[in-house]
């Protein structure tokens, strides 16, 4: 996609102008109202068939995307909040209208539909993030897509140099807050979603930020299931060999306990080990191998160790460390060192 923005990434930048599919729904209308109060001007309009002529949080509602674009040609990004069975039609309508970036917030989208609109969009040069994405945050602008960060994103998000890539929307913000306490801010946080099929993968995101000088370090939060983490490791190695990757990467892969529970899904729909594939240990091994070759990748044994990985990789702080004891401890005091060692076995 040709760059036409001055601040941000292909996913969210200062030229992003948003149309919300299903804007009159309960969740969408609430998110639009909150986002407008925090970062006004990025949401331009919404679409709900049969509700054309109404308004949500001061934003006009249209019956079709085509109708909205006739009045607002600056729109270039779509957010999909419609029910699962309607997502396919909503995505196709956005693609056919010329929208180049689409975030799908909806959960439980049929896999068959995802496969269809993923290929439909890719053939036409359209980026889709999701399904089940919580959105994207760019403190540098500042702006956000979706509900990422909640009602008060400033608690967690401060301008800095880290990119957080996560399958979990909630954990994206938790991670930003953890790093903020230790002195690192965020350049971009992108919640990819945890479905079986992810339309934007870790590898896709790494490719899109490889040449961005504002990125000082990357956090990858993966889990069992699929091969997206292995693809990310391969992409880092390839970009490094091409001379395009010099950014430190801290990775955490959840779900080692699931290795003996094949066929059982935990958390996200895509977090399932089947027929020996998608194991956490395989993903961890892939990242460690790339780390040995490049010196740029470290894997955290436990989630809160991501901070130590970034510190050991030499990523400079963006502001003062507010935890002088030098360690971010687990939130729950019942998790002691002995328990952690038992879980690791």
Brief summary of the model shown:
The chain contains ten helices and 14 strands.
Structure notes:
The strands form 2 sheets. A 7-stranded mixed beta sheet has the order 3-4-2-1-5-6-7. A 7-stranded mixed beta sheet has the order 9-8-11-10-12-13-14, with helices on both faces. Helices cover 31% and strands 19% of the residues. It is globular and about 55 Å long. The N and C termini lie far apart (45 Å). Helix 3 packs parallel to helix 4, helix 6 packs parallel to helix 7 (228-241) and helix 7 runs parallel beside helix 8 (280-294). It contains 10 helices and 14 strands. With 345 residues, the chain is of the alpha/beta class. The chain folds into 2 domains: 1-131, NAD(P)-binding Rossmann-like Domain (Rossmann fold, 3-Layer(aba) Sandwich); 134-345, Rossmann fold (3-Layer(aba) Sandwich). Residues 331-335 have low confidence and may be disordered. Helix 7 (228-241) links the parallel strand 12 (217-223) and strand 13 (249-254).
List the helices and strands and how they pair.
Elements: E1 18-21, H1 26-38, E2 43-47, E3 55-56, E4 59-62, H2 65-71, E5 77-80, H3 87-96, E6 101-104, H4 111-122, E7 127-129, E8 135-138, E9 143-146, E10 159-166, H5 169-182, E11 186-191, H6 202-209, E12 217-223, H7 228-241, E13 249-254, H8 280-294, E14 297-299, H9 306-312, H10 337-344
Parallel strand pairs: 1-2, 1-5, 2-4, 5-6, 6-7, 10-11, 10-12, 12-13, 13-14
Antiparallel strand pairs: 3-4, 8-9, 8-11
Helix pairs in contact: 3-4, 6-7, 7-8
């Amino acid at each position: 996609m040709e760059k036409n923005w001055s601040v941000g990434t292909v996913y969210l930048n200062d030229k992003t102008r948003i149309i919300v599919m299903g804007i009159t729904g309960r969740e969408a209308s609430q998110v639009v109202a909150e986002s407008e109060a925090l970062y006004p001007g990025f949401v331009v309009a919404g679409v709900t068939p049969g509700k054309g002529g109404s308004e949500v949080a001061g934003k006009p509602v249209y019956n079709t995307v085509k109708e909205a674009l006739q009045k607002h040609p600056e729109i270039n990004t779509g957010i999909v909040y419609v029910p699962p069975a309607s997502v396919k039609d909503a995505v196709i309508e956005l693609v056919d209208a010329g929208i180049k970036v689409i975030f799908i917030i909806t959960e439980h989208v049929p896999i068959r539909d995802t496969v269809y609109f993923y290929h439909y969009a890719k053939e036409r040069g359209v980026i889709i993030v999701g399904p089940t994405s919580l959105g994207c945050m760019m403190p540098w602008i500042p702006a956000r897509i979706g509900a990422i960060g909640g009602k008060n994103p400033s608690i967690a998000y401060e301008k800095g140099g880290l990119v957080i890539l996560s399958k979990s929307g909630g954990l994206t913000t938790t991670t930003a807050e953890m790093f903020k306490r230790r002195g690192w801010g965020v350049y971009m946080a992108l919640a990819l979603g945890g479905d079986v099929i992810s339309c934007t993968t870790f590898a896709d995101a790494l490719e899109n930020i490889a040449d961005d000088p504002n990125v000082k370090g990357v956090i990858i939060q993966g889990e069992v299931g699929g091969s997206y983490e292995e693809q990310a490791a391969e992409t880092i190695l390839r970009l490094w060999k091409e001379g395009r990757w010099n950014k430190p990467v801290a990775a955490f892969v959840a779900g080692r306990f699931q290795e003996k529970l094949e066929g059982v899904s935990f958390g996200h729909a895509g977090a399932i080990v089947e027929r020996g594939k998608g194991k956490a240990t395989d993903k961890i091994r892939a990242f460690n191998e790339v780390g040995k070759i490049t010196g740029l990748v470290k894997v955290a044994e436990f989630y809160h160790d991501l901070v130590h990985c970034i510190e050991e990789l030499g990523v400079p702080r963006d502001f003062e460390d507010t935890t002088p004891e030098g360690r971010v401890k687990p939130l729950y005091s019942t998790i002691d060192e002995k328990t952690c060692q038992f879980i690791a076995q």
